[in-house]
Amino acid sequence: MAGILFIISAPSGSGKSTLVNQLRSLVEGLDFSISYTTRAPRGSEENGREYHFITREEFEGMIAAGDFLEWAEVFGKDYYGTAVAALDHAKQAGKDLLLDIDVQGGAQVMKKLPHAVSIFVLPPSPEILEGRLRRRSEAEEAASKIPITEETIQKRLAVAKNELKRIWDYKYALVNNVLDQAVIELRAIVLSERGVRDGVQSIASSCRTDSASSKLRAALSAFQN
Ligand code: ADP
Ligand code: 5GP
């Protein structure tokens, strides 16, 4: 395997985790980098599976030690970072690596490793994003016992609109409307980047940001209203 680095970014609530979980069950040879974070585990999340959950002191120690390929403070609240070790790990295992990181982290990795294949996931409209954010907040509330306020939801929507401005920095964009279709597209992008030709090439091409499909333009214009 070529050791391709995939970056996938999306505004919170777009459905990226859902998509990535499905992709992992469909595609072989893809390592998933388990990020470090200072946020609390949510729902059924387990330490070392979805994230390495660490304290702010531990995170700051890792920054000082140069352990991160990239890191960011997401929503101005919690630290999230990708360990340099994740790259070495995937390389040694002969696998491709998928980084699920926010747009700040995506920009850092694209700068350091310009050969990385970047994919942006967006929801079809702000109304649909709001619905998904509210549903996800229920799981967050249940996990942390801290109520997710209306202000938090509105802040996340505003952050999403801002993050969408970075979409053109990404090679591919996919609109997560019907989940199964988005999964087909994500799989096609990965396989097409691996050099598979049959059946995936045209799907992947239609997701390139430089082809600006009508689906992509419709979603972006919904966010501009
Ligand atoms: P993210 O990782 O981008 O923050 P999640 O994967 O946690 O988002 O999804 C947010 C919510 O939206 C979850 O409740 C999830 O089940 C739901 N969801 C994800 N994709 C879709 C989709 N295509 N259609 C409907 N609901 C979806
Ligand atoms: P969540 O708390 O919903 O799991 O993630 C919040 C945001 O942090 C998402 O946009 C997710 O992609 C991003 N994120 C997760 N891990 C990392 C990481 O290692 N680095 C950066 N920069 N962002 C991350």
Question: Could you characterize the architecture of this molecule?
Answer:
Helices cover 47% and strands 19% of the residues. The chain starts with a strand and ends with a helix. It contains nine helices and nine strands. The mean pLDDT is 93. A hairpin with a 3-residue loop joins β5 (68-74) and β6 (78-83). α1 crosses α7 (179-193) and α5 (126-144) crosses α6 (150-164). With 225 residues, it is α/β, with parallel strands linked by helices. The radius of gyration is 17 Å and the shape is globular. The strands form two sheets. It has a five-stranded parallel beta sheet with strand order 2-7-1-8-9, with helices on both faces. The chain has a single domain, classed as P-loop containing nucleotide triphosphate hydrolases (Rossmann fold), CATH 3.40.50.300. Adenosine-5'-diphosphate binds next to α1, α5 and α7. Residues 12, 35, 39, 70, 72, 74, 80-82, 100-102, 104-105 line the site of guanosine-5'-monophosphate (5GP).
Give the topology:
Layout: E1 5-9, H1 16-26, E2 30-32, E3 35-37, E4 51-53, H2 56-64, E5 68-74, E6 78-83, H3 84-93, E7 96-100, H4 103-112, E8 117-122, H5 126-144, H6 150-164, E9 172-175, H7 179-193, H8 201-206, H9 214-224
Parallel strand pairs: 1-7, 1-8, 2-7, 3-4, 8-9
Antiparallel strand pairs: 3-6, 5-6
The structure holds adenosine-5'-diphosphate and guanosine-5'-monophosphate (5GP).
**Which percent band covers the strand fraction?**
15-25%
| CATH uppermost class | Alpha Beta
CATH topology: Rossmann fold
Name the ligand types.
adenosine-5'-diphosphate, guanosine-5'-monophosphate
Spans with pLDDT under 50 lasting ≥5 residues? none
The count of β-strands is 9
Largest sheet: 5 strands, parallel
Strand arrangement in the largest pleated sheet: 2-7-1-8-9
**Domain count:** 1
* SSE topology string: EHEEEHEEHEHEHHEHHH
Straight-line distance between termini: 44 Å
CATH 2nd-level architecture: 3-Layer(aba) Sandwich
Structural class: alpha/beta
The total of helices stands at 9
Please, what is the average pLDDT?
A: 93
The radius of gyration computed from the alpha-carbon positions, rounded to a whole number of angstroms, is 17 Å
Helix content class: 40-55%
CATH superfamily: P-loop containing nucleotide triphosphate hydrolases
General form: globular
